[in-house]
Design a protein that fits this description.
Helix content: under 10%
Mean pLDDT: 92
Distance between the termini: 28 Å
Largest sheet: 18 strands, antiparallel, barrel
Number of helices: 0
Structural class: mainly beta
Radius of gyration: 19 Å
Number of strands: 21
């Protein structure tokens, strides 16, 4: 989704957070106790550390391998309290990508990604009807690859959107339900998940969703249980698979406060 300039909510965090470190592990049932197994990759990264400034904006995101080696880093820059650009570096500090954002007041119009040689790699264009986002189109090497069009709304909140490939063929349909203006249920052709009032996934079918990382390639039914720190931020999510609640994965967060 659009990168918002207020990032703590997106990371399911409250309070004056300086950084959060996230790691995912296999969950193993050992004599009735659920313990951590091997560390897992989450969207190609094993451990990720996100740092925030005092206003709650992300300043950097660092990815680490299973062995604890720096795999890459993204540096975030802002203008008028909105994301202006993100520069991605490789493990050796080499420039990999630069993403530049264009705004019209509070509406994000375009995000363009350039490669290390300054060539445009892809761009995403957002179109609006008033303040309602009507469509999002992604171009790769100048060619339309994906378009998502919102087809139904509840006020300014989209309740249905349809995705198309570059040839105009429908590839997916997303249905959204809200409670008190917040997302409560998300359904696609491939999987569905339900979230509580804090935006935490509680149950999912044929998909896996933690921290807005959405994987549609996992079959089965999943349940999510959270443990919280004294600041009401979750520090551990245990995911169970199937009605018998077989331990599946454990996501741990180490949160540093100012």
């Amino acid at each position: 989704d659009v990168l918002k300039s207020k990032d703590l909510d997106d990371h399911q965090l409250k309070g004056n957070v300086e950084s959060v470190k996230v790691a995912t592990y296999e969950a193993i049932n050992s004599f009735g106790n659920i313990v951590k197994g091997k560390i897992k990759s989450r969207l190609y990264r094993s451990v990720e550390v996100t740092e925030f400034n005092e206003s709650g904006f992300i300043t950097s995101t660092s990815s680490y391998t299973k062995n604890g080696e720096l795999d890459g880093k993204r540096i975030y820059s802002y203008k008028n309290n909105q994301i202006d650009n993100i520069i991605s570096y490789g493990s050796a500090g080499n420039l990999v990508l630069k993403t530049i954002y264009e705004w019209d007041n509070d509406l994000l119009l375009k995000a363009t990604i350039y490669d290390s040689k300054g060539r445009e790699a892809s761009k995403t264009i957002h179109e609006y009807d008033g303040n309602k986002r009507k469509s999002t189109s992604t171009y790769i090497n100048g060619k339309l690859r994906h378009k998502n069009i919102a087809t139904k709304y509840e006020g300014e909140l989209p309740t249905e959107s349809v995705s198309y490939n570059g040839e105009g063929k429908e590839t997916n349909r997303t249905t959204l339900e809200y409670k008190n203006g917040k997302l409560a249920f998300h359904s696609t052709y491939k999987g569905t998940y339900a979230v509580d009032e804090d935006g935490l996934t509680t149950k999912s079918v044929d998909c896996y969703s933690v921290l807005n990382d959405y994987n549609e390639d996992v079959k089965g039914i999943f349940f999510y249980e959270y443990e919280f720190d004294k600041n009401d931020n979750w520090i551990k999510c245990t995911i169970y698979k199937g009605e018998i609640k077989q331990p599946y994965q454990i996501v741990e967060r180490v949160i540093t406060y100012r």
